[in-house]
Amino acid sequence: MENNSLLNYLLFTPLAGALLIMFFPAGKKNLIRYAGLAVSLAAFVVSLFVYAGFNNAVYSFSSFQFEFKYQWIEGLNISYFVGIDGLSLILILLTTFLTPLTLLSTWSSIQNKVKEFTFFMLVLEMGMIGVFVSLDLFLFYIFWEAMLIPMYFIIGIWGGERRIYASIKFFIYTMFGSLLMLVAIIWLAVNASATTGYFTTNLIELYSVAPTLGINIQVYLFLAFAFSFAIKVPLFPLHTWLPDAHVEAPTAGSVILAGVLLKMGTYGLVRFCLPLFPQASVQYAGWIALLAVIGVIYGALVAMVQKDMKKLVAYSSVSHLGFVVLGIFAFTQESMQGAIIQMINHGLSTGALFLMVGFVYERTHTREIARYGGIARIVPVYSTFMMIVTLSSIGLPGLNGFIGEFLILIGSFKSPVLSNWMFTIFAASGVIFAAVYMLWMYQRVFFGPVKDEKLEKLTDMTGTEMFIVASLIVFIVWIGVYPSTFLGLTDTYSASLVNSILNTNGIITK
Predict the structure, then answer these.
(1) Partners of 78 in the beta sheet?
(2) Taking the chain, what is the end-to-end CA distance rounded to the nearest angstrom?
(3) In whole angstroms, what is the distance from residue 280 CA to residue 293 CA?
(4) Long-range contacts (CB closer than 8 Å, 24 or more residues apart) made by 447-453
């Protein structure tokens, strides 16, 4: 029997912990770190209870579990309304899993303003969870905006030399898209009131009303929502904030940014754009798929010429997220399942890559590929872990990346909406390019002559570092070998959503 308050515990545990930590003495750094880790672990435990109570029986894309509703702004019929389905559950688990590992990784790298850093990380976790559980569009917007603030400070205070520029660019890009989405939310609620008889931002009610709006209104609203989410993905050509944010952010910021924040864009496309505006989604599917494929190829080609390891991984995100967007707009169950599992895969693999780059940067204070070489002999454990994560990122069969890319490609090829098979062919080239830039980077860093005598004194991974990366590798292998554990959470959701969109557009599949 589900506990309808469980999501409240999940949502407010990080916030309560963050507020409590602000009363700790600033000099007690280890106490603050342990407290932050304990709070994030508590949130992870609550998320496991949610997972244990989740019922994956056949349901429609508009059915949710663990619902909790409280009237918030009565005059506008706005509620604190939360609930989850398979899509939000799998992303919540990713969030609560990555956060404690990320905090653990900062034990030695963050020495300045530890209390403030821990506070912002926990508030960020609360904001991310809030985005995934919100079933009221106004509440969703509040969490979407609230999540910006801690990430802005994490980049701006603990980032690299150009941290102020990167944090402001990140904030302005996302804020611009957010305000466009706010206008669309108000417009949607006002238009829906002609049918409902009252102003509402309740997502479940809007699921039945929004698709009945005229196609012209649907198009405008779809474009406003999609533009906001495309910035967050980021979809080419709205990606230019991402490399700066990743390179200047501290390792912890990069892990959370790649692992969870980028998924909010793809989550928004699946949760809001497709079911609310099914006709407009199909009408613009070809254009968005084209941008996604360009992003796959462009991100990979630019990654090839990077001199900085972190920037290379950042551009690989542009390429990998292009795959996810292509899968979403192919409108087949296989491609949708592939897109959802690839969100998780990217969070695990790219999060692990940023951690590995961060570990070696702490020792050498450089990320320039040309400064390395031959360190496989000096740090064999680090080299082994890095190889596994690299192979995961390029989609080696048996590891997680292969599952997502395979499902996306086969689903896109069968797409009843993307009638041109060239989308799939060009997207598939991204897999080859990924192997080129990732393995080339690995070769230059780990093999050949040692470029600098200082590298001879390089120390291998600590026990804590091995634990952090091994935790990620467990799921990298698990998804690669037995993906049903994770695909099973969203299979009925994907089938229901895709069938609903195709039926609304009168598309009959073979």
Answers:
(1) 73
(2) 39
(3) 20
(4) 447/373, 447/374, 447/376, 448/373, 448/374, 449/373, 449/374, 450/373, 450/374, 450/375, 450/378, 451/370, 451/371, 451/372, 451/373, 451/374, 452/371
Burial 353-374, CB ≥16 within 10 A → b, else e: bbbbbbbbeeebeebebeebbb
Compute the chain's Rg from CA coordinates: 22
pTM: 0.90
| CB of 282 closer than 8 Å to CB of 498 | no
Instruction: State which H helix or E strand residue 337 sits in.
Output: helix 333-364
- Over 71-127, what HEC string results? EEEHHHCEEEEEEECHHHHHHHHHHHHHHHHHHHHCCCCCCCCHHHHHHHHHHHHHH
**What is the C-alpha separation between 81 and 339, in angstroms, rounded?**
26
One-letter amino acid of 72: W
- The CA distances from residue 6 to 42, 57, 267, in Å, are 13, 20, 22
Which residues, 6+ apart, have CB-to-CB distance to 61 below 8 Å?
A: 85, 207, 275, 493, 496, 497, 500
Q: How far apart, in whole angstroms, are the C-alpha atoms of residue 47 and residue 242?
A: 29
> The tokens 């969100």 sit on which residue?
343
Q: Which strand (E) or helix (H) includes residue 70?
A: strand 65-73
- Nearest Cα residue to 247 out of 170, 304, 311: 311
Tens digits of pLDDT across the chain (510 residues): 456 788 889 988 999 998 998 888 877 888 888 988 999 999 999 999 988 888 877 567 778 888 888 888 877 788 888 888 888 999 999 999 999 999 988 888 777 888 888 899 999 999 999 999 999 899 999 999 888 889 888 888 887 778 888 888 888 888 888 888 899 898 888 888 877 777 888 888 888 887 787 888 888 889 999 998 998 888 888 888 888 888 888 888 888 888 888 888 899 999 998 988 888 888 888 889 899 999 999 999 998 888 888 889 888 888 889 889 999 998 888 889 999 999 999 999 999 999 998 888 888 888 888 888 888 888 889 899 999 999 998 888 888 888 888 898 888 888 887 777 788 888 888 888 888 889 998 988 888 787 777 777 888 888 888 999 999 999 999 998 998 888 888 888 888 888 888 888 777 665
CA neighbor of 493 nearest in space, from 63, 12, 26: 63
Sign of the C-alpha dihedral computed for residues 231, 234, 239 and 243 taken in this order: positive
Q: Is 304 exposed, middle or buried (0-12, 13-18, 19+ CB in 10 A)?
A: middle
DSSP three-state, residue 159: coil
Q: Tell me which H or E stretch contains 355.
A: helix 333-364
Find all residues with CB under 8 Å of 187, minimum gap 6, and list them: 217, 220, 221, 224
Q: Which of 274, 179, 175 is nearest to 222 (CA)?
A: 274
Report d(CA 411, CA 326) in Å as an integer.
10
